[in-house]
Design brief:
alpha+beta; about 25% strand; about 650 residues; 35 strands; eight-stranded antiparallel sheet; nine-stranded antiparallel sheet
Length: about 650
Amino acid sequence: MGYLKFDKTLLINLEESLTREILRTNRGGAYHSTTIVDCNTRKYHGLLVIPVPALGEDNHVLLSSLDETVIQHEAEFNLGIHQFDNYHFSPNGHKYIRQYDCDIMPRAIYRVGGVILSKEKVFTAYENRILIKYTLLDAHSQTTLRFKPFLAFRNVNFLTSANPNASQHYDLVENGIKTRMYEGYPDLYMQFNKPCRFVFHPDWYKNFEYSKEMERGFPYKEDLYVPGYFELEITKGESVYFSGGDTFIDPSVLAEKYEEEIKSRTPRTSFYNCLKNAAQQFYHRPTENDAYLIAGYPWFKVRARDLFVSLPGCTLSIDDPVRFEKIMTTATPAIRNYMKDRSGDKVIKEIEMPDVFLWAIWAMQQYSKMQGIAQCMEKYGALIQEIVDYIIENKHPNLVLEKNGLVCSEGKSQAITWMNSSIDGKPIVPRSGFIVEFNALWYNALKFASEIAGRQGDTERVNQMEALASKTGASFVETFVNGYGYLFDFIDGTYVDWSVRPNMLFAIALDYSPLNRQQKRAVLNIITKELLTPKGIRSLSPKSEGYRPYYVGPQKERDLAYHQGTVWPWLLGFYLEAYLRLYQLSGISFAERMLIGLDDEMNLHCIGTLSELFDGNPPFQSRGAISFAMNVAAVLRVLKLLESYTEGMNNGQ
């Protein structure tokens, strides 16, 4: 049995099947996403969703869906499914699905009487193109397939309504048509690998409903335009290929193109393989010379903190150091440009956040551990030194090195940490002053800079780094360690935040820590007792004031809960790293057990990946973005870490 396989019983139960989504991306930021029964439940869903640079930074839904109809003896069986008013579904094509699996590509098997039809989908890696392969596995009489495309041509953040401005014009192209609803958009090419008949029958289908948008308190009704339909004959054993893209393709190469794309895929036959595929879906290469990581799908873009936190897990942990180097080659000028004149970057957002450069050093530190410190020094030694000196010289506008060796930031007027939810521009969690993870990262950066200087034989710099690290470490303990065995989250002047939050975790998870073993164990114990869940680490203890475990309701309600008790899997990665540091080989079985809850997620929500966050209370329902880079990266790092511990154990080390 496949790792990602669903049977008829689950598929025909819409309460189960509509909660399971799929995502396929390409290197340009385009994607295909829907549910496993092909019923769109989000405004972000679509067969072909692509960036249109001329219209801004957002993605746009061109081809929303494609309904297939099987015709035999003049009887029509529509395999599509859409939700309309009052939770009404029509047609009910899901009742014909007998099996769905996603080991290599999304594949559904439909049975209509004596007809058995297979449908497989591939999103091409370097083009904005969805390929669908239909194979008639069995049929006892002449069979015709009809295809009805539903077009949107809109920004993913908005919905469309029937309107007279939409162009109904189309042009015939080889084995299909091209059309464009509005100026400024590219043409949508819909083609088959064999001749077909296109019947022009323009119409607007109204009042589609997207249940996920309804849940999130957003507008959820839409009208979609259908230009007509395609028809072609198919015989038993024959495969027909459909292409939907923003460029023309020679129909004769569709079958070959499809098979080439399949060969490059890693089968999703295990927890690791699913995460590896998910990690590669975040790769973003808008030009041949640039490489990035998208923070998540379907609505996130490239964010600086997310990029550096995710980078080691999404590259090094799947044995792809070359990808790490390419992304760092793109990110390095952005870092240096900001240090030079505080200029932002067009693609990497939020590079001005005060902890971003500290996370960049951490990412390069992970490269050093995987590829060797000599290679790290050669590639990144100068950059690490520049960043550390930049902070020491107090050139960052919001990361001030104080006399006690700690760094201080102003976070009352703007959210500056990863806990960045805001209402009307004001942070919901106004973390300001001495912030615990900023200073844990700063101490770690100083010690790593000292390590590099030592390898370079620069005694003077070693002494400088060690002296400052010693001062920082002593002040860290004096400032953050309280009498209850955990760390204050932040201290702003005379205000001390006693909330039990996960940010103290970094002080025990990073390679260098100012805490002694006893202090580390005390912190780990508190996190284990109050924050640990099967899906990750809570953002706030249930015992702390303001705990809101459920990320539900309208936008404001969700913003208020975003970091007030919700669970984040990426923090579990650092928690397990800290646990293994303290307990070594004896912690392996515990770490493996803790990953079971996330392994289960591979068949839930967006299958084969990890969603952004989870509710803080049972049953720990997944919420937010359907695929989140920091979560995927953190678990991949843990799996790699467990592999190294296991190898050491087998080698008797």
